[in-house]
Each structure stands twice: as C-alpha cells, then as structure tokens.
Amino acid sequence: MSDPLDLPIRPRRLRIQPQLRRMLQRVRLHRSDIICPIFVKEGTGVRQEVPSMPGVFQMSIDVAAIPGSDGSFADVVSGPRAIAFTSDGGLALVVDQNSQDVLAIDATHQAQVGLLRPLPGRMPDGIAIASDDATAFVLQRNTRDVAIISIQRGAAGTSLAVTGTIPLSTAVDPMPADIRAGQHLFYSANSDELPITFNHWVACASCHIEGRSDGVTWKFEQGPRDTPTNAGGMLGTGFLFRTADRTKVQDYFRTINLEQGGAFDPDQHAAELDAIAAFVNHGIPAPIPPTTDAARVATGKAIFERADVGCSGCHSGPKHTDSGAGNPDLDLAGAVMLHDVGTCATRGYPDVDHDDVAGDPRAACMFDTPSLVGVASSPPYFHDGRATSLRGALELTRGMMGDISSLSEAELDALVEYLRSL
Ligand code: HEC
Ligand code: HEC
C-alpha cells in the first residue's frame, strides 16, 4: 500500500495542534537517538578501553579523531541546528551551526557517510531537501544567502558538493558590519578558519545558545557557574562575571583559550575580539518580558523599593545592579562592591578564592549583584543555578538577601510579578 501521508503538499493546518502533529508525524526523533556519549579523560594521547564496555573508550580531548559506532573514524561537529531526511527516510542531513558543515548520516545504520565542509557562507541555520532528493538548500544566516548542495547517492557511497549560492537579499545589510562579523565569530567553532577552538569543538554559542543561556552549571576554576544570558548586552551592567573578574567582552580571549581550547592572542586577534564585543553588546536583543498583571507589578515595585525589604539597595539603577557603582572606569583594583547573600557553594564542587583578570584577589563567597533585566527568561538563578524559580530564589536566601520576613504570601507574589516584568 502506498503511504497515505505521502502528499506532495502537507497541509499546514494538520500541524495546528500537538495531537494532530503527533498523529501525522512520520519521523520520530528522541534525545536518545542523537546523543553519542563520549568519555573524556584528562591528559593527552589517552585512549583507554572501558573494561565493562568493550568497544567504548575513554579519551583525552587531544585525540583528534573519535571512532564512530562502526569502528570507522567520525568527524567532530558542533551545534546541530537543523535536520532533513530524503523522501525514503534513508539519508539524514544535519546542519551544524557552530562547526559550519553538513553531516550526512545513513539513517538506517546510524553511521556517518559524509561531511560537507567548508560551506560557502557562514552560520548555517536550516536545511530543506528538494523532492527529487538530489538537491539540498542550506540557509546561511550570517551571510544572508542559501547554499545549493548536490546529493549523490550510489553504490560508491554518498557525496555532497556545493554547486552555488542564492543571495537572499541584495539590499544593504541592516546590521552594521562589526556586529555582523561578531555574530559569525560568536557562533563559530570553525577551527579551520581561526584558532577560536580546537577541532571544531566549542563556540561561544555552544553555551550561550542564541546569545542566552544553556541553563547548565559548569565547573569553572572559580567554582560552579551557571551560564548567564548575554541578551540585552553587557553595557551598563558594571563588572562582568559573578565575582567581578572582568570588565569588557574583549577579555573573553581567555574563555576562548581556556574553555574553548582555542589560541587567541589579544593583540593579534584584537579586531575579532572587538567584533565579538560589538555583537554581544549590541546584537543580542533583550528578552521581551512575559505578560504580567499591571496592578500586582505596581504593588511589587513598591515592595522592591521599600527600605525595610532592601532589594533596591543592591539592585539599583536602570539595570538593577550596583555593580560598578562609584567606579565608572571599572578599575578592578578599585572599589568593587561584592556581597555575600548566603549562596556560597561550600560542599561538592565549592566556590574558591581566586584572582580576577588583572590578578586582584576575589573571595570565594562574595558575589557581584546581577542585573535583573529579563530575569524571568533566564532560570535557573544564582551563580550556581541553585534556584529554579524566582520565588525559590527568594526562599533560598531568606534572611540573607534583603528582608522578606514581613511580607505576606500575596506581597511575595507581587514582588515576583514585578521581577517578571523587568
Ligand atoms: C563552556 C561554556 C561557555 C562558553 C564556551 C562561553 N561562555 Fe560565556 N560564560 C559562561 C559562564 C559559565 C559564565 C559565568 C562565569 C562567571 O561568572 O564566573 C559566562 C559569562 C559570560 C559573560 C559575562 C556575563 C555577566 O553577566 O557577567 C559574557 C559577556 C560571556 N560569558 C560571553 C562569552 C563569549 C563572548 C564567549 C565566546 C568567546 C563565551 N562567553 C563562551 C559559559 C560559557
Ligand atoms: C546585599 C545585596 C543584595 C540585596 C539586598 C538583594 N540582592 Fe538580589 N542578589 C544579590 C547578589 C549578589 C546576587 C547573586 C548571588 C549569586 O549569584 O549567588 C543576587 C541575585 C538575585 C536574583 C537572581 C538573579 C540571577 O540572575 O541569578 C534575584 C531574582 C534577586 N537577587 C532578587 C532580589 C530581591 C527581590 C531582593 C529583595 C528582597 C534582593 N535581590 C536583595 C545582591 C542583593
């Protein structure tokens, strides 16, 4: 019997509700289908078989080629962003936004059968396969064009080749050139082009997904650190990092070299770092707050500003932070206002005393007041992500962060409603 769903045009309204989408869905993709666990071990040149799991290895990150499930060597790709299947379901093409390539996967045997790298443009973002299964189109968001890719499947294997590009617009790019360049670098793990990472591994956007947060608490040198959002930019938020360790986005060459495994020289790569800073500061829109109840927001604002409750003592100014107050040049060795609000991690993977980027000491448990702009959209909260909700954040710091002891349930709700409106 022919497939009843094999319609040349799949009517849009069939996708209107989740129940309909589930009923008519043809490809079911579960997280477990796409996660390929890799066991990383410290050191170099390590490739040790796990005794209880034959064929599974612990490897150090310098081991460039990671074996695929069929024993062949697979390539490292990062930032899978979109997927398309040929009409027989046998071939899947995955667009990797950060490593900037298209990975071909034999969907039946779940093995890599090809990799198209480099692509002609930057920041691949989406893919469609034409109904003849011979051509794919890859949207390249940064260069504002579409790459045309030929797909050849035969006895000799699968091969992909770029055959052209279609510009999406001939109009002048509305995004200024430095922000556009920074967007590319922020999303790029293309180590063939620049030493921004090692082996196509990590981009800024790997953790700051779409310039925001992956919601992951990473084990950083300073202690556990939940990825903060970059939405709305860093200007006017005072010092950077949870313990005021940095002052400008250009300092992130250290993140490139440490967390991303790259090799950026702050002088040699000054132009690239300026472009990344331009993108972070001006290219990531601030989140739109959720719909809130105006009357409760007004009540909450008044509570937030009450001297006995004390929120606005630290969360002051237009971005609701005292970071950098009285220190307009952001002198790291000067007055840096940090607070202990009862959130120090002392067990497990603890916060530790450390130095800022200029070598000034920073105490383990003293934190920089975060901006509260867009706070509703960036859970979990606190430097180590210990609170999953705004209300939870207030409960966990009861008696340590301001004084909410006099507030009724309704007043606490109003305070949270105000936070959600920021
Ligand atoms: C491994 C994940 C990861 C990667 C990759 C990463 N970041 Fe971050 N980023 C974090 C975490 C976690 C913090 C918080 C660190 C701290 O406060 O000590 C952070 C903090 C920041 C901040 C400060 C935010 C604030 O409010 O203080 C900025 C800006 C930033 N990152 C930009 C970047 C840029 C630009 C890149 C690429 C060069 C990058 N990040 C790569 C995880 C990451
Ligand atoms: C003594 C200064 C101080 C006072 C007073 C204060 N805060 Fe904070 N606030 C901080 C610091 C510092 C952090 C970050 C702590 C951390 O990351 O572990 C923080 C974090 C937060 C967060 C989580 C933000 C995020 O993105 O993780 C919220 C929400 C918040 N405060 C709301 C309030 C409210 C509401 C009040 C009043 C009841 C208040 N704060 C009073 C300093 C203060």
Q: Report the major sheet.
A: 4 strands, antiparallel
**Overall geometric form:** globular
Strand order of the largest sheet: 6-7-8-9
Arithmetic mean pLDDT = 88
Classified in CATH, the superfamily of the domain at 177-282 is Cytochrome c-like domain
Kindly provide the radius of gyration, computed on alpha-carbon positions and rounded to a whole number of angstroms: 25 Å
Task: Catalogue the unreliable spans.
Answer: 64-72
- Under the CATH scheme, the architecture of the domain at 177-282 is Orthogonal Bundle
Instruction: Give the H and E element order.
Output: HHEEEEEEEEEEEEEHHEEHHHHEEHH
Helix content: 10-25%
User: How big a fraction of the residues is strand?
Assistant: 15-25%
CATH class of the domain at 177-282: Mainly Alpha
- Any ligands, ions or cofactors bound here, and which? heme C
CATH-derived topology of the domain at 177-282: Cytochrome Bc1 Complex, Chain D, domain 2
The secondary-structure class comes to alpha+beta
Q: Can you count the helices?
A: 10
**Cα-to-Cα separation, first versus last residue:** 57 Å
Would you count the extended β strands for me? 17
